[in-house]
Amino acid sequence: MNIYLWLQLSLLLFLSSALQAADIQLSEGWISAPLTQTTSTVAAFGIITNLTQQEVSIVGARSDYAEKVQFHRIEHIEGLVKMVLVPSIQIPPKGQVSLTADGIHLMLIRLQKIPWKEDLISIQFDLNNGDEVTHHYELRDRNQTAGKERGHH
Amino acid sequence: MDHNGNLVTESTYSNKLRLVFFGFTRCPIICPTTMSQISKVMSLLGERSHQVQPIFISIDPDYDTTETIADYISVFHPSIVGLTGTVDQIERAANNYNVTYGQGPVNSLGDAEEIYHTSYLYLMDRNGDLIDLIGYGAKPKVILEKMKEYL
To answer: Long-range contacts made by residues A11-14, C-beta under 8 angstroms, separation at least 24?
Structure first.
């Protein structure tokens, strides 16, 4: 293969990949403010939108603020609440997934540092195509958003 | 044992109605939501709040020390007491209330695939008998309504 053609193809692949990462967007992203200075786990909410024509999976997540970042799903079964680990989430083409308190949401587990009022908390997501996308979540007081965090789904 | 390190028994709060909730301080959504609802109920009760004892019982005794619980409940209504104990003591208390809690299998990364616990609020009378089970998410006014005739 001609070296120029190879470079052009590589560039095209890179741009296509970068475009996909840019096209996975977050809106209304927020993290519940820790209750106290000893809080070890907080949850993150928002809407993740896939602007591409292909289904995209998020297969991993991490943040400097926590030892682990995981997707969890809440299930209510006759007075029992289950918090179920979700290994990956799929976002349909031109679709979105809402992260809510009563459905799937993000958990920042074993906080490494306590987020503070003006902090914008970055979470890096690993996509199924090997790309990475970073979203920024603002900190909100739980009481200010108690109504909003429910009923999104 | 309460969050101040005092030993408690079934009779400790026998002169009061009790609102009992089993949870754990590391629970980031269900437990603080319920604790906030309890706090609102206590505020709505106003002068009658002294007739009611809200109780948080930790199902995570390995992590929830008296200090951790004291710190946790400090952000909610001041009348709430937090209880912890040994694994056996917690298990006995949970059995008395027919409370279920635990975790599913642990995956290769060391993470539990699920964690579960009963999410009911238990409304108990002054004798410690169950008046009502209140489901997760009940509005404070609904909880208050259930308590009214016992105040």
So the answer is: none
